[in-house]
Amino acid sequence: MAEFSDWFKETFKNCYCEQGNLIDEKRFAEIVQLVLDNEADEESRAIFEEKIKSCVKSNFTFENEKSMREEIQKKLSAHTGEIPTDLAQTIRNSVNL
């Protein structure tokens, strides 16, 4: 797990400039997914949570990703029809991607 923690810290650090501002939103969104998937270890999660308390842009990105995930979960829970085999492509098509 230490290997993951080292990767997380390094990747997390590279999301920010020297002044501590979020500069790599795409990479940060990937880290958010790891946190939301409960794949981040305790130390990594603590670093993450501390940063989103003090950085408005980081907090906004986290809350946005979390809200999207919750909305998708609600939609899928309410869906009673058959789920397509190629769900990812079906979702992309439905949102014009």
Automatic annotation (TrEMBL):
It comes from the Bacteria. This is Uncharacterized protein. It comes from Roseivirga misakiensis.
